[in-house]
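## retry 2 of 3
previous attempt timed out at serialization; input unchanged, resubmitting
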Amino acid sequence: MLVDSTFTNVATAILTFTPLPGAGQGTTGISLSNVAFSGVTSGIKSNTGTVYLAGSVTSIDTFTIGTTYDSTNNRAWTTGTSWTTTRDSALTYSPSWDTGLPNLPYFEQVSN
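## retry succeeded, writing output
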């Protein structure tokens, strides 16, 4: 899972093995949450050249390759699904700089 991240001026943001639905086969799951691309050719690309998310998609709320579950726990396989995810405002913050992200990032605090 990749959360609150930006990729700038790279040919391929994420290079992966070909996603396969069976357990123990290839790559079985990639999730992006609140990600931005700028100057990216391929957002997610397999080692065989298949592009699952184009770099022209500059703003990603939520995107998943792999197993998903619906509200009744039915399992499904996807090679790329996008949707909107609600973020609780108590868990986010508004930084003093432009993050370029589609949503406010989650709050982080350094622990000692």
